[in-house]
UniProtKB/TrEMBL annotation:
Pfam families: Bac_luciferase. It comes from the Bacteria. It comes from Paenibacillus cellulosilyticus. GO terms for molecular function: alkanesulfonate monooxygenase activity. GO terms for biological process: alkanesulfonate catabolic process. Residues 36-337 form the Luciferase-like domain. Coiled coil: none annotated. This is Alkanesulfonate monooxygenase. Keywords: Flavoprotein, FMN, Monooxygenase, Oxidoreductase.
Length: 379
């Protein structure tokens, strides 16, 4: 069974990528200026649209350009009924016991709709600005320990933990989660340190889409690492999505998203990625550069053009609903059971995906199951 997730743009929504008007002296000219401010009214409208469109969960991101994820989820809880909230948090800024109480409270008030997304972070400048100065390897050891302690808080009573980064004596969480045994923990990262942390502690491994072949290599690597710990994970993959009634219309839609990007934004993005410690972003940057002569097309209905100006999730599925549904099923066949979909502008994309794409994927999967059952009955 496939689940569909999306993300709330708590930095603001925009129709186009890389439209900037940075203040003099700012060092982040790649940050898109929002057409729509992330007001509470807009956030409620977006969450309700996602719920109505068939998305099971809403990612609330974290970062120095985002509104706080936990506060935002709390504000949206009473305006939604079934939508789960995937709360992004960084281990460097919240103690595991404090975070467990926060997530447990949200889970209690929403009757079991809290999910956890642990973010280690790969931009040293952003991390340093918030007071985190650990090196890459140490951050991932801390992440693994954070998740380990978090799980114990939700499932054990009165335990003591003596670790490298956290020390708890007679720890206990009074109000444990409604979900049993605990909320699902999502985590991602492309480095070997990240993969080991995920294999050892996470429930769902998240990754940004690449080509089908490269993505298979990555998921196979994580599956093998999980087997070494005698564990089985769920897998989530993230795409941008741009649809059209025809393939030509879809490509025009996708390419229009970068029509106002200035060369200095492309240059700034490339320099940022070079300084960044995120293995995933470096992989996407290389994929984009390698596909430049092909118009950034990296496979059927697969485009890396947004990576010129965007960090993180920037590979796009482009095509008619039928074409994009076929591509999603190809990735599902690799082992992905969760798809995190978004695009610019966000709310229109969520509505289009819910109206035109999710039903098409479900229909194709149902048809395939019926054909498989028919084949078995005739054997």
């Amino acid at each position: 069974m496939i689940e569909f997730l999306t993300m709330l743009p708590t930095h603001g929504d925009s129709a186009y990528v890389g439209v900037t008007n940075p203040e003099p002296g700012r060092t982040d000219p790649w940050v898109t200026i929002a057409d729509r401010e992330p007001s509470l009214a807009y956030a409620i409208k977006y969450a309700q649209a996602a719920e109505k469109s068939g998305f099971s969960a809403l990612l609330l991101p974290t970062g120095n350009v985002c509104l706080d994820s936990l506060v935002t989820a709390s504000a949206l809880a009473s305006s939604t009924e079934t939508l789960k909230f995937l709360i992004a948090a960084r281990p460097g800024f919240t103690a595991p016991a404090t975070f467990a109480r926060q997530i447990g409270t949200l889970d209690y008030y929403t009757n079991g709709r809290a999910l956890v997304n642990i973010i280690t972070g790969g931009n040293p400048a952003e991390l340093n600005a918030d007071g985190d100065f650990l090196d890459h390897a140490s951050r991932y050891r801390r992440t693994a320990e954070f998740i380990h302690v978090l799980k114990r808080l939700f499932t054990e009573d009165h335990f003591t933990h003596e670790g490298e980064f956290y020390h708890l004596k007679d720890a206990s969480l009074f109000y444990k989660s409604v979900q049993k045994p605990r909320p699902t923990i999502y985590f991602g990262g492309a480095s070997s340190d990240a993969i080991q942390a995920a294999a050892k502690e996470a429930d769902v491994y998240m990754l940004w889409a690449e080509t089908l072949e490269l993505t298979k290599e990555r998921i196979d690597e994580v599956k093998a690492a999980a087997v070494a710990y005698n564990r089985t994970l769920g897998y989530s993959i993230s795409f941008q999505v741009y649809l059209g009634d025809t393939e030509e219309e879809a490509w025009a839609n996708a390419r229009s998203r970068v029509q106002y990007v200035k060369n200095e934004v492309y240059d700034a993005k490339a320099k940022l990625t070079a300084k960044n410690e995120s293995f995933g972003e470096k992989r996407l940057q290389q994929l984009m550069e390698d596909s430049r002569d092909n118009g950034f097309q990296i496979g059927p209905n697969l485009w890396a053009g947004l990576t010129q100006a965007l960090g993180g999730n920037s590979i796009a599925l482009v095509g008619t609903p039928d074409q994009v549904a076929d591509r999603i099923i190809e990735y599902a066949d690799l082992g992905f059971d969760k798809f995190l979909l978004r695009g610019y502008p966000f709310i229109e994309t969520v509505e289009a995906v819910g109206r035109d794409l999710i039903p098409r994927v479900q229909q194709k999967l149902a048809e395939r199951e019926r054909e498989a059952a028919k084949t078995v009955s005739l054997a």
